[in-house]
Every structure is written in C-alpha cells, then in structure tokens.
Amino acid sequence: MADGKRLKKALTGIDRNAFYKVDQAIKMIKERATAKFDETLEISLNLGIDPRHADQMVRGVVDLPNGTGKTVRVAVFAKGAKADEAAKAGADIVGADDLAEKVQAGQMDFDRVIATPDMMGLVGKLGKVLGPRGLMPNPKLGTVTMNVGDAVKAAKGGQVQFRAEKAGIVHAGIGKASFTETQLVENVKSFVDAINKAKPQGAKGTYLKKISLSSTMGPGLKLDISSLSGA
Q1: pTM for the whole thing?
Q2: For 53, which DSSP code?
Q3: How far apart are CA 39 and CA 11, in angstroms?
Q4: What gap in Å lies between CA 114 and CA 95, rounded to an integer?
Q5: CATH no. for 74-151
Q6: What is the chain's mean pLDDT, rounded?
C-alpha cells in the first residue's frame, strides 16, 4: 500500500503525454526518487530498426563520463603475466580451467567477463551458459583483448554495454539518483551519442523514435529528443 501511495505522489505534477527537456526530466525524476535505496536512473530508447536483420543490429559500449554508480564484478580468463595484470587492475575473479569449472557449475558471481584471445577456445565451450546472460566476451566490445588491465579498469569505471532487443529497444542504467543533475545530463547525452554513432547502415526512416527516462521505482518521462545536442 505504501508503494502505491508513493507512486501516486510521484505521478503528481507529471504529464504522461508531454515531452520534457533532458535537464527538466532529470530534475523531476530526482525529486521523485524517494525509495529507501539509491535508485538507478534508467534510459529506454525505441529505435527504428529490426534487429532480426544483421545489417540493423545495434550493439556497442560507451564510457559514461560520470560512471554508473554501480559496483561491477569482473571475471577474467587469463594465464601467467596476463592473469597477474588483471588481478592488479582490480579483477574480482581471475582464472582459466578452474574458472571454467565454476561457470559450468553455475557459480557466476560477476557482471562482466573478459578474456585474452588464447583463452577463447576454453571460453567458447561456455557459450551456452554465458551467452543467454549476455556475458560472452566479444572482440567488438573490447572484452576479448590482450590489454586486460585496461579492460578491467574500463568495466570498473562505468563502461556500459548496450544491445538492441527484438523490438528495437535499448535499455541501460546510466547513473544513480544521488548523482548531481549535471552528472546525469552528461551521462544521458553520452549514452545517446553512442547510440547515434552505432546507427547501422540498414536503418531506414527515423532512427531515434522515442527516448524515456525513469528511476527504479518511479514513473517514466518522455524526452524531447531535440534537447539532446547531436541527437
């Protein structure tokens, strides 16, 4: 009942049919993020694509200028000096065959997987386990690399992976309600810019159809796309 009352209060003063400028939307969302935990600010983009066609897939990574506010646990498949490099950079779990056995057993207490190229023969066998969770390392996303130290630091520092779902929608967490308005505006603009740069050649018509913002427990607000410079 308390949640219902809180949502009703959060909806006060919001026009669900209006399009808000990004700074205005963030101010309103922050004012209404009253849950007992630090809510995540979530962005949802409806793109004019059909991801079922290979030439219309939207996928990539973006380094948010102010991070996500989320603690990302990173697992690295590496051996020898590269394993040491990953551990030194702050990886939470580092291993090879031993790590593969844990994954096969369902022990996956991590949010991102990085691997050196020589480990992909081993990691490839874990595709059925890692794939459905979106954890499979990928050279295009910078998670299959010899520069494991840099990859770990990027993952820990607020790098966000994105991928369009079947309906052409991209979701991502782009900060916390405790962030300043300026930090959140910068993160939103960086994320939308990355989506624009990832526009596939096969996309026809309007690419950015709709963008909305919300907090974990709050109502969604539609954004005026023209208020995002470059969008």
Answers
A1: 0.81
A2: S
A3: 16
A4: 11
A5: 3.40.50.790
A6: 90
